[in-house]
Amino acid sequence: VQLVESGGGLVQPGDSLRLSCTASGFPFSNSRMNWVRRPPGKGLEWLASIDPTGRATEYADSVKGRFTISRDNAENTLYLQLNSLQTEDTATYYCQYSIQLYGNRSDYRGQGTQVTVSS
Q1: How far apart are CA 108 and CA 92, in angstroms?
Q2: What per-residue string of b and e applies to 18-44 under the rule 16 or more CB within 10 Å gives b?
Q3: Beta 113-117 vs 9-11: how paired, if at all?
Q4: Would you say 81 and 93 are in contact if contact means Cβ atoms under 8 Å apart?
Q5: Along the 119 residues of the chain, how does pLDDT read in single tens digits?
Q6: What is the distance between the alpha carbons of residues 66 and 43, in angstroms, rounded to a whole number?
């Protein structure tokens, strides 16, 4: 499994960013995918999930209405559109693939992409 996130950067409050995650090594088009983030000094926070078809999405309350998850199965790429960014959105963002095997769940993430929101 390989996941490579990109698209982060330093932005001002109210700005937008589009994060990308290219995936390989597993059946991406048949897999539910997630975005999670880790703010400085804090634990992982789940943000959004998308089903394999791209038609069903779920969001954490903290980002609902501001972030949009999407995917391009032909390109094995997952996206996260971040709008109306706030300082509390500062974090390292990861795409996540999870697999359940013999009752145990394994989570795979890439190296992450840093988003810093500051005026």
Answers
A1: 15
A2: ebbbbbeeeebeebebbbbbeeeeeee
A3: parallel
A4: no
A5: 999 999 999 999 999 999 999 999 999 999 999 999 999 999 999 999 999 999 999 999 999 999 999 999 999 999 999 999 999 999 999 999 999 888 899 999 999 999 999 99
A6: 21
